[in-house]
Amino acid sequence: MLTIVDYGLGNILAFANVYRRANVPFAIATTAAQLEGATRIILPGVGAFDHAMNLLDASGMRETLDRLVLEQQVPVMGICVGMQILADGSDEGSRPGLGWVKGNVRKFDVSTFTQATHLPHMGWNDVAPTRADRLFAGLEKDARFYFLHSFYFECQNQGDALAVSTYGGDFACAVNTGNIYGVQFHPEKSHHFGMQLLKNFSEA
Question: ω into residue 129 within 30 of 0, thus cis?
């Protein structure tokens, strides 16, 4: 069963509505027991890095998530801050992240931008996959997704960058290593592009 993790941070109903429209069965987990039996996991998140980690720890689900993802190799996709907490840490806070994808979350340095812009990066932007993957099936060209963020994922291994977007320069907007995926944009707010990606994840 595809399971959406509700640890108090993220628009759970938006994901639920997308999967209902796509006729994909899903469950919502607020406890470790409800995670058992998950065959796909969505880890959403909005807001600040440390706050997300604090809430995830307080939920009682972190140990079970580690076991499912790292030991049982259940596919997981972190979204927005849910992607950022996959990293080892973040410039935004002091807490360690999950460490599932090696790298750190950095703040955009607007002083290096060659065009007039500001933070946060907000709105629609092109997304270009760097390699073939089921997650972007049907989205290899002209796919656009909705972004709202001031921090980006800096992969330790550049091969973990699954897709890039551009804001003052290219940055990894999707990551992947093995069964672990993350996307910085909001597929639940990205109309048919987002629905396709979320459906792809449910079938990967």
Answer: no
